Structure formats: C-alpha cells, structure tokens
Amino acid sequence: MVVKKIIGIETEYGIHTNGDLKDNPISASSVIVNSYVNEVLNDKTKWDFDDETPQNDARGYVTKGSVAPVVETHLVNAVLYNGARFYVDHAHPEYSSPEVADALEGVIWDKAGELVLKHSMQIVRENIGHDIVIYKNNSDGKGNSYGCHENYLMDRGLPFPKLVHDLVPFLISRQIYCGAGKVGIEVPSKKDEEVYFQISQRADFFEEVVGLETTLKRPIINTRDEPHASSEIYRRLHVILGDANISETATFLKLGTTAFVLLLIETGNVPKLDRMPLNPVAALHQISHDISLESKIELNDGSHIKAIEIQEEWLLLADNYFHKYGGELLGGDEVAKLILSTWERVLGLLKSDLLSLRYEIDWIAKFNLVDAYREKNQLSSNSPTLKALDLQYHDLRDDKSLASRLKLKTLVTRDQIESAVYNPPESTRAYFRGQCIKKWSKSIVSANWDSIVFDVGEEPLRRVPMMDPLKGNKTIVGNLLSKCHEVTDLLDKLDT
Amino acid sequence: MTERELKKKSTEKKVEEETEVQEVSHGDSARAEKLKAEMDELLDEIDEVLEDNAEEFVRNYVQKGGE
Q1: Which of A16, A41, A123, B67 is 20 to 30 A off residue A205, Cα-Cα?
Q2: Do A406 and A76 form a contact (C-beta atoms < 8 A)?
Q3: What share of chain A is helix, strand, coil (3-state, %, to 5)?
Q4: pTM of the predicted model, to two decimals?
C-alpha cells in the first residue's frame, strides 16, 4: 500500500526568566501556555489522553531497562483553533502542529507556532508583568536537550527493520542542510576547544541507533508505536533527531526530503543498500563536527563517503521517482518539484559556495555571524559571548532575535502564517478538528489527534473518531460543516 | 575552520571550474568586500541588542531536558 505523506512537526521551546519563576520552568511554561489559552480561546478544549500509548514499541517488544516516556496529564494541555496542540511537556512549552499534507504547509503551521509563542510572551508581559523569554532551539549548551520531532504517516505493511536499515544513512547526513548550528560541543569526553562550531544542535545527544527512549540514550530511529490513527493500516514514524529550525528553507527541506525518502523506501524504489555506515552514531557526530563538509564516514565495506554524497544519491533516486510517478503522494507535483529543485540547489551550493547559503540555512547563517563577530572583536573560540550569540539567534523576541536581523529568505508569506494561527490546514482531518472547535467549543469536552468528544446535554457523551488522517479534510467535510448550525445537526448527520 | 578558510575553499573550487582565473578572483574579492561591509553593519547592530552580560546570561540559561 502507498500512503500519502501526512506530516506533523512538534517543538519544545526553550524557556528562560530571571523573575520569580526563575527556578521553576514547569510553572513558567504553565504560565506561558495558560495565559495564551485563556486570552485567545473562548472555551478551553482539553486534550483527551485516551489514545496515548508512548510505551508501545514498533519492534513489538520493550528493551530491558529502557524508560518509556511519561504522559503528564495534570499540566495544561489544549487544542487550538488551527488544530494544533499547545501544552506543557516536561519543563517546556510545546506546540505540536496540526497534520499537514505537504512540506510547505509544514513550514506555515510550524511558523504559526512561533507566532503563538510570541503572542504568549506578550500576553504574559502585559497581563502578569513577567518577562518570560522563549527560544526556538534544542540545547542549553550544558548537556541538556529538548526536542523538535517530526511525524510521518507510513504504511504499516512496511517491515520496520527494512525502514530502519534504509533510513539511517539519510537521517544522519541530512543535517548538512537542516542543522541549526551550535557553538561548542556537548559530548562529555570532548572539550569546546576541540569543536568551536558544529552543524547540529542535537547530534551530540544521540547514543543509540534504534530505541524507544527520547530523554536518555536517544536513538537515531525512535520506535514509539503510537499511530494516532488506524493501527491496522498506518504507522506514524516519529523522528526525534532533528533540530528546530528558524529558516523556512531548512524546515521545508527537512520535512520535504524526509517525506520523499520515506516514500521511496515504502514504494520499493530504493536499490539494495549494502554499504552502510559502520558506526551510525559516531558518523552522526563526525558529520556534525565538521563544517568543511569534507570528512568521510566509514562504511562497513571499508570504504568512505561524504555526507553530501549520501544526500546526492538520495536526490537522484527521488528525481527518478518523480519522473516516473509524479508528486501526488507528497502533496502534488508543484511541491514535489520545489523539494527536488531546492534540494539540488542547496547541495550544489554546499559544495561550491557554502557561504552563499547564509540567508537560507540556519547553521551557515549562524556560523557566518558568530565567526565574523569573533574576528571583529578578537575573541577566543570559547568566549561566552559567542555562546550568547548562539542562544540569541533563537530568541523569539522581535527586538532581540538575531535570526530575524539576518533577514533569512522566506518561502511563505506573513499572511499565510498569520492566518494559520487561527485556521487549520484544509488538507487533513485537522480541518474537522479545528473547525469543530471554532464552531462548537462549548459542546466539546476534549479532543485529540484521532477523536473529538462532544457533550450535547442530556445524551451520553459522544466520541467522534477520526482514525484516518486523510479524511476530515475540507473537500470531504467542508459542506457538511457549513450546513450544520447546531452541534446536534452535525452529530445527526454523522450518524446517517 | 574559519570564515576565511571557508571562503578560500569556495574560491579554490571556483578556480578549478573556471578558465578565466583572473576574473573569478576579481569577482570574489569584490564579493568579499560586499560581504564584509554588510557584516560590519550587522555586527554594529548586534552589539546594541546583545544581552548585557554575556557570561552571566550564558551561565543562567539552564534548561531541564525534555521530550
């Protein structure tokens, strides 16, 4: 079976305050999320935890000693009008985008998340007087990391070991265009002096190839088996390796190329891959630690290959696929063409004129800035000022954000992003979720990815399942939703 | 690798590809000048917005692990 590559992207934001909540990031995160939810939503639609099973392992077993993620049901957890989930996860505010049908929509609803967090900061400042600052990054530079996870809809029929085998070389090498850049190193055995600047925020934190964990012994391929959809048909691949990007091009490429590669693997358009990285975790670190992009990772047959060469091989396969089958499963020919042309252009420039990507690729934008500042001020490579620049690149305050001063190129319009804060994508079931919450939030008890629970007074609560992420889009339910004035009309019509 | 080295690397590649070496190096130095001017302006701006005490700011930025 082939499956349209429905995508979601979730970001745990860094949070920092010098005020009363300085030592209590859980409370600070709760203040951020609660303030937004109370100010912006008419009625708070609670998250329904009924389908949360993060302990299920895609390999069908649980590794001895592994720690399954804890589901925190007591903290604020809400559904937004755009179909996203906005909540406190561990000690961070997290925005999980609604499901989207292509990588460009992924950029729009990811950027909408930044606006939600910016608005949250502003509300907290104006209403409570707290200065809580939000950062879209993944590391505090002291060995603590928080994630930016991607989700891709997959065919459950594809054997998981095959997926792992084929995907690892792609995943460890894609950082050359979607890494967010980092000053210093956080591998315990190495010192900052050894790596002044590296490509990825996250690479240092990965220790395993495959596993269920997300907070300890992080694996390159996460095995969480929680499809949030019909488990007989679908798998949701949960990719935890990526960095949170500020650059729209980087987010677009991250989502677009990964969706493409997954489609190639799923449809059997990949030759038998025998030459594999000898040590994927070491290779992941090695690639991140070499900004010249010249270093070669060792393969199991004794040969060596550059990250960029791995990417070029995948690009060629993707291009061949597109010419045979088109881009329907990636959201249409237009977006598939844009993925291919951007991928090709960026790989070309990474080889021939790397600095020309300083307006498009986060790690290059940040490196160019940090290195110029270091040179101008004659700073040593381990100067805290350079780490401050790194952190401030990701600061979401308009007046403080260094990324916004670099004037990175955009792929989507400001209007599209602003509209996406309050409107769901029309292409997936997020449309049904978001529109129902806009229209009938008073009658909705809770919602989650695959269902909505309605309370219509005297009758028992009604759970409306949405087990197929492709259904519930505007084409399918648009008419129905506009015809129904009362929630009871909707439920009656759904019955028939 | 410093910015200079990165520039050097990209210049070397270009020289290999192009036959008119003179023109390329001239174009590159003009471009480097432009880059520097653009960067200088930005760096001045950044000095104005950079957090006051970088060392303290970096030290205080401590996060709990997430995910």
Answers
A1: A16
A2: no
A3: 45, 15, 40
A4: 0.93
Q: What is the pLDDT of residues A204-229, one digit of tens each?
A: 999 999 998 888 889 999 998 999 99
**Which residue of A66, A385, A393 to mutate against B (max B Cβ within 10 Å)?**
A385
Domain extent listing, chain A: 7-417, 429-495
Who among A25, A355, A388 is closest to B51 (CB)? A388
Note whether B31 contacts A: Cβ–Cβ < 8 A. Answer: no
Length of chain B: 67
- Would you call A15 and B67 a contact, using CB atoms and an 8 Å cutoff? no
Catalytic residue among A48, A89, A290, A450: A89
ipTM: 0.90
Where is A448: in which H helix or E strand?
strand A444-448
> Which tokens in the block code for residue A371?
């290195």
Residues of B within 8 A of A242 (CB-CB) are none
Contacts of A312 (CB under 8 A, 6+ apart): A347
Contact call for B7 and A355, based on CB within 8 A = yes
Considering the domain A7-417 in this protein, what is its CATH number?
A: 3.30.590
Q: Which two tokens stand for residue A476?
A: 């399918």
What end-to-end distance do the CA atoms of chain A give, in Å? 29
**d(Cα A287, Cα A289) in Å, to the nearest integer?**
5
Three-state DSSP class for A351? Answer: helix
| Interchain contact B60–A (C-beta under 8 A) | yes
Residue type, A57: D
